[in-house]
Structures are given as C-alpha cells and as structure tokens.
Amino acid sequence: MTTREISGHIKEIYGIELSTSFVSGATDAVKQEVVAWQSRPLKQMYPILYMDGIRFSVRDNGKIIDAGMIASQKETPAQLVCRHDTPTSHFLEGNNHA
Q1: Pairwise CA distance, residues 27 & 60, whole Å
Q2: Residue 58 CB: number of other CB atoms within 10 A?
Q3: Which of the chain's ends, N or C, has fewer CB atoms near its CB within 10 Å?
Q4: Residue 98: inside a domain
Q5: pLDDT tens track for 34-87
Q6: What are the E-state strand segments in 1-98?
Q7: 34 in the same domain as 10
Q8: Domain boundaries, position 7
Q9: Is the dihedral of CA 89, 91, 97, 98 positive or negative?
C-alpha cells in the first residue's frame, strides 16, 4: 500500500486524517523490526489452540443471570493426524468472571 492509500484507509476506518509524511515516518520507524520478524527462523512445530464460547441466561436461585461456557482444545500437528484428546471446558457463572 502507498502512504496515500494508508492515510485514506485510516481516515475511512477511524475518521482521523494523517499526512502522508506522518505515515511514511511511522512505517519507516517499524520497517526494520518487521523485516527482522519476517526473517526469523521458524520452529519445526507450533501447537494449535482452538477456542469457542457461548453466553446465555440461566435461572439461579430464582434469578436470571448471565452465564457462559468457554471450550478450548490444544493440539500438536501429530494430534491433528490422530485425534485422541478431548476438549477442556470451563464454566463461568454470572458476570463475576471475565
């Protein structure tokens, strides 16, 4: 993307006007770090974490409260070939937990 396109995109999404010289300076400031990150050696294997959740209302002691359930499952590439583990679930009651 050109600096003009980036400036236009920021204005369209956030309603903020940025000069093309500001965008150029900002991209130049992080460019070296981005190139270093893109050039880093990759590990042989990365674990995968699947997460899903649902919020719903339940009756608790005569009161309707918000509750939710979060399910997560961690897998390595070997487990993707031969799935043998089960998801771990955690139940959150009320609005007391984030």
Answers
A1: 53
A2: 12
A3: C
A4: no
A5: 999 999 998 887 788 888 888 889 888 999 998 888 888 887 666 555 444 444
A6: 48-60, 63-75, 88-92
A7: yes
A8: 3-38
A9: positive
